[in-house]
Amino acid sequence: MTQKELSTKHVLGIKYLTPEDIRLIFETAENFKEVINRPIKKVPSLRDVTVANLFFENSTRTRISFELAEKRLSADIVNFSASSSSVKKGETLLDTVNNILSMKVDMVVMRHPAPGAPAFLAKHIDANIINAGDGTHEHPTQALLDAYSMREQLGDLQGKKIVIVGDILHSRVALSNIFCLQKLGAKVKVCGPPTLLPKYINELDVGVEYDIRKALEWCDVANVLRIQLERQDIKYIPSIREYSQYYGINKAMLDNLNSEVIIMHPGPINRGVELTSDVADSDQSIILQQVENGVAVRMAVLYLLAAKR
Q1: Terminal CA-to-CA distance of the chain, rounded, Å?
Q2: Which candidate, 80, 141, 247, 304, has a CA 20 to 30 Å from the CA of 275?
Q3: What's the whole-number mean pLDDT along residues 298-306?
Q4: Is the whole-model pTM more than 0.90?
């Protein structure tokens, strides 16, 4: 029997979702993808639901994707950006949230630089919480849209080989992707310089490869991460130029492989560093599909959580 509702009231991390939850989100996203390709792209599913977007960290792509998903579902939206708020004046996280809740908000989409901030919130307030990225911990909706995009290309992910390339240490996308892909039965490897792989990587039951060419030979999909200089408090690599020499992917490398590898990137891309433009814009790249799928997947998450109210 197919599951009809999520097993959880919040989406704090992939760690807390079951494989059935993930499949239900994908099925629901499938329906919403059809909606957003219609001439009239709106449905009244979240009419009378108020969603607060709390972004304590800069974000363009994720915030716009969530906002668009909320508008497509006819939700009422409150946008809150911490850089221009009372947080600058010393207000605590709980004060901020209580103030927003007194405005009778039903759901909160939150990005925060501190790992665990959305989970802290879920313990203290009654609204449904969606984690839109907490520090270097998790970014569940990104992993869901990545896995959904892979499934569109490859069908069932059971036994498929996925390599995650780049700055694994500072990436919340990497951790969420590993959890999500493993729950769907995929084989996962990480590839990057030793300084950018976390010490606990061996505990996550993933393969480790330091040679980008060998990693590309092995995989069906390469999900390439951005070098996150803004999260690096010390130098983990000698230079961007050297990183791109050893770990950047160019078209010639892809053309020399025995099979065609799908290229993904959660964005924004540092062109010429992680990927050359001819790779980012090639037929093997599904980066723009990821962006489109992001709206459908986030609509699905919002819709399914609203049903738990």
Answers
A1: 23
A2: 141
A3: 98
A4: yes
